[in-house]
Specification:
The radius of gyration is 20 Å and the shape is globular. With 383 residues, it is of the alpha+beta class. Helix content is 27%, strand content 34%. The longest helix has 19 residues. It has a single domain, classed as Anthranilate synthase (4-Layer Sandwich), CATH 3.60.120.10.
Length: 383
């Protein structure tokens, strides 16, 4: 069966989630792919012993600021039907009778280059005075557009087969993602996070590509940035894990994806038995790679300086089974689409440190945006 057939069936429901995992580095996958559908959302508290599918917006634990596309802070459903398999449906040779984006008119950017670089300098002043060590600064781009979410998802999947290729529908709103970053993984009492900090473009030749990866591996700035977030994650995990159980088996390892190299670390620990999985998530949320360090201080500056709320961007999306297998991605490298308002949005950003070059941080953000734009054949000056 083709992937498009699975997704068209799922899209006949008002709520559905599809996740396909493709990363050759991923050793923690419970299922290669999962599809879940439902007729209604779950609006009550989350408990042990049930399937839950969906996620949390960034504002679940952050101060509210209006977003371009609004979701409930906690957007979950209990599946009517769920299929979880180790073999994926066919998708590599999928073709489209029509383009994923049929009409698009660029509306706005939340920050232009001058404003973004000015904010980087202001954040660096806070870092200089010891008020914060790192802040993840992001910007958003918005279009008025008519898209086919199914075709858009497959186009993004074909361009970026990565750890988490997901498609989430919540009534008339969609999250279409190709995220390389794991937020929360659980098996029995073992929980893990895999923060990403450190990004570099791919080379034009294999020799250049290897050299860029090697430079990233030894970059003092990128290593310091990754280590800082790993320390934050370790501290978060230590609040919910057995003493002495938190380990870092991989620190700032290079992982290569279509278009980008990243530095990825793995941190895990054994959850305290008296704490539920939702207690653990509340302690860890939002992902430290999307805030900065210390987390609460960084979130205050994010609220002060970013013009729009983040919504699902920087949040987490995934599933948990009745037996406790959980896997949630950080919502990055993702399109957010509201079919009712025809609003299409992406958000991107970078981690600001004292040594950051403001223009380089702007260029890193755009490097991430350009890959998503190319997948849907869009530009900020869209037709």
């Amino acid at each position: 069966m083709k992937l498009s057939q699975v997704l068209r069936w799922a899209d006949s429901y008002p709520y559905f989630y599809f996740q396909l995992q493709n990363s050759p580095y991923d050793e923690l996958t419970h299922y290669r792919w999962i599809v879940a559908v439902a007729h209604k959302p779950h609006r009550d508290a989350l408990h042990e012993g049930s399937w839950y599918v969906g996620g949390w917006t960034y504002e679940w634990k952050a101060r509210y600021k209006k977003t371009w596309i609004e979701f409930p802070k906690q957007a979950f459903f209990i599946p009517k039907i769920i299929i979880a398999q180790t073999e994926a449906p066919e998708w590599e040779k999928e073709s489209f009778k029509r383009e994923p984006v049929r009409q698009a008119r660029f509306l706005q950017s939340s920050l232009d280059k001058a404003h973004f670089t000015n904010l980087v300098e202001r954040i660096q002043e806070h870092i200089y005075y010891g008020e914060v060590y790192q802040v993840n600064l992001t910007l958003g781009l918005a279009w008025e557009a008519t898209i086919d979410p199914i075709c858009a998802y497959i186009a993004l999947l074909q361009a970026f087969p990565t750890t988490y290729n997901f498609l989430f529908k919540y009534q008339q709103k969609y999250v279409i993602g190709a995220s390389p970053e794991r937020f929360f993984w659980q098996w029995k009492q073992l929980i893990a996070q895999q923060p990403i900090k450190g990004t570099a473009p791919r080379g034009k030749t294999w020799e250049e590509d290897l050299q860029i990866a090697e430079n990233l591996r030894h970059s003092p700035k990128e290593l310091a940035e990754n280590t800082m977030i790993v320390d934050l994650v370790r501290n978060d995990l230590q609040r919910v894990c057995l003493p002495g159980s938190v380990q870092v088996p991989v620190l700032a390892g290079v992982q290569t994806f279509p278009g980008l190299h990243h530095l990825v670390s793995t941190v895990y620990g054994e959850r305290e038995k008296h704490l539920s999985w939702i207690n653990a998530v509340e302690s860890l949320f939002p992902a430290g790679s999307m805030t900065g360090a210390p987390k609460q201080a960084a979130m205050r500056y994010i609220h002060r300086y970013e013009p729009i709320g983040r919504g699902f961007y920087s949040g987490a999306i995934g599933y948990i089974s009745p037996t406790g297998e959980a896997d949630f991605a950080v919502v990055i490298r993702s399109w957010i689409y509201d079919r009712a308002s025809r609003r299409l949005v992406i958000q991107v950003g970078s981690g600001i440190t004292y040594d950051s070059d403001p223009v380089a941080e702007w260029e890193e953000s755009w490097l991430k945006a350009e890959k998503l734009l190319h997948a849907l054949k869009l530009s900020p000056q869209a037709a």
